[in-house]
Every structure is written in C-alpha cells, then in structure tokens.
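User: I'm writing a tutorial on reading structure tokens. Could you give me a worked example: one chain, its sequence, then its tokens, then a sentence or two explaining what the tokens reveal?
Assistant: Sure. Here is the example chain.
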Amino acid sequence: MPSQQRARRSAGLLLFRRSGEAGFEVLIGHMGGPFWARRESAAWSIPKGEYGPGEEPAAAARREFAEEFGHPVPDGGWVALGDARQSGGKTVTVWALEADLDAASAAPGTFTMEWPRGSGVLREFPEVDRFAWCTPREAAERLVTGQRVFLDRLREHLADGRRTPAREGS
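And here are its predicted structure tokens:
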C-alpha cells in the first residue's frame, strides 16, 4: 500500500456531569484559531486529537484531553461510546467520563500557523479558546455534526442506568 494514505484516526474524552432537567451536561470546547473565531454553531468539539499506529486510542484520548484542557484527566471509569466516521474521512473514537471540572480553569495548549494566509506572519492560537458545560440540546447545536452521535450514545447509556466501568478504556 505504498501510495495509499494512512487512515486518519482521533480519540477523545467526553466529560459529563449529572444535573437538572436534562439529566446531564457535557464539557465541550470551542475550536481555536481564526477559522472558528466568529462561529458558534458546529464550531465546538469533544476534546480529542489524532494518533498514529504506534499509540493506543485510550492513551491518545488521555494525552489530547490534557493538551486541550490543560489539566490531567480526572480519575474515574471510562464508558466506551464507540467510533464514528467524520465527513472528512477521519474515524473518531470517544469515551465518556463522569467528572465535574471548572470549565473556566482550562489552560489550553497552542498551535502556530501563518495568518493571514500568504502573509508570511506566523501567529500562535489556542487549540481550544473556551470550554463550557452544555445540556445535550445545547451541545447538539454547538458540536460539529459528526460528533453529535456521541451525545445520543451517552444518553442511551445513562437511560439504561448502567454504571461507569471501573477502568480506563474498557
């Protein structure tokens, strides 16, 4: 397969907390950088990132959460929410984790890109410019389309009354 591209894969963690009428809220992040600056709808994401063939998806999810949120992953059992193929062809694997963090305490990592394009000027932007706890309905409006399926899967898991597993990545 010399000319074929490697399949792009990402892994992430969807934190949730039980609350109010909606039953639960999820922690999602608004994507950083100039492309997303003026958008709200479909401009938010589950903390996640790409990984290569030498890294386990759960390890990538842990790494990416720490990079994007700026704090380590809280302790607790992970709930496998499965995979979803995004419109761009990337496959995303997500776990849910019940935890309650202060969204305002996030200290996201940064990336550098040329901006404006063609200017030769390199600028630094946060990977995620803000985090927020959202009801499933709010999150469905804000999340990029291909990640909304994970809200449904978490809702099903919680409706079934299943408890969070005791170990990571199970």
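What the tokens reveal: The beta strands are 9-19, 23-31, 44-45, 48-51, 78-85, 91-98, 110-114, 122-126, 128-134. The chain is about 20% helix and 35% strand.
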